[in-house]
Amino acid sequence: MDRPQALIDFTRQISLDWINQYAREIASTSEYQRLMTFFPPLSELFQEGKEEDPEEFGRTVAHTFHTIAVLNRISTHSFTESGLNQDALRTVYALADSIKASSPLIMPLILWLHDIGKMQDKRHHTEKSAELVSSMGLLDGWGIGQPLVLLITKVIKYHLLVGTLYSGEISYFSFRIKLEDPE
Predict the structure, then answer these.
(1) Phi then psi for 140, rounded to 5 degrees?
(2) Which one of 35, 53, 68, 161 is CB 3.0 to 4.6 Å from 14, fit for a cystine?
(3) CA atoms of 84 and 144, how far apart (whole Å)
(4) Residue 35: what are its φ and ψ, rounded to 5°?
(5) Measured at the alpha carbon of residue 143, what is the angle toward residues 139 and 149, in degrees to the nearest 5?
(6) How many Å is the Cα radius of gyration of the chain?
């Protein structure tokens, strides 16, 4: 199996039930270890983050896995936990389907990488995350072109401006801004 499809398949395995069960011990799970195989440069960065601030490390990693679980609910049109009304939720589902049809890697890559900067700079983590994605070459080898690399990096850099990635659904509304950005 190719690397992009392996990441997509791995991403699809993360559920809200799983995150609720393992949120406090994610770093000791096989899923966490598997994540590190997709992004080897993160192992050292995350270890340093864990040693420097174990609580922030735990919150960040749990949050990241939670965003993936929400992505999966949105992708399967079964996000019953959303506070949106049914019309708004249908819009989110349609936009998610559109993004996935464009490239099924876009949202997984954004969500797995959006908060990695917290390991070095909590206050400016969005900019730091985007910088690390670029400097560590974390989008290399995924078979995506430069326009998608730029899009993913920009969404990561500005993710606090476009909406919270915690609940997920607002990010889909906000994603339209990035799709229409001429750069």
Answers:
(1) -75, 145
(2) 68
(3) 32
(4) -55, -40
(5) 40
(6) 15
Q: Answer for the pair 49, 118: CB distance below 8 angstroms, yes or no.
A: yes
Which residue type does 78 have? Answer: S
For the stretch 110-148, pLDDT in tens is 999 999 999 999 888 999 999 999 999 999 999 999 999
Residue 9: count of CB within 10 angstroms of its CB: 10
- Residues 6+ positions from 95 with CB-CB distance below 8 Å: 172, 173, 175, 176
Q: What single DSSP character describes residue 122?
A: S
At position 62, the amino acid (one-letter code) is A
Question: Cβ distance 102 to 92 under 8 Å?
Answer: no
Report the distance separating Cα 120 and Cα 107, nearest Å.
23
Q: How many CA atoms lie within 13 A of 139 on its CB side?
A: 28
Reading the block at residue 121, the tokens are: 């700079």
Closest CA to 66 of 174, 171, 139: 171
CA 68 vs CA 51, 62, 145: distances in Å:
25, 10, 23
Query: pTM for this one?
Result: 0.87
Is residue 49 a contact partner of residue 56, using CB atoms and an 8 Å limit?
yes
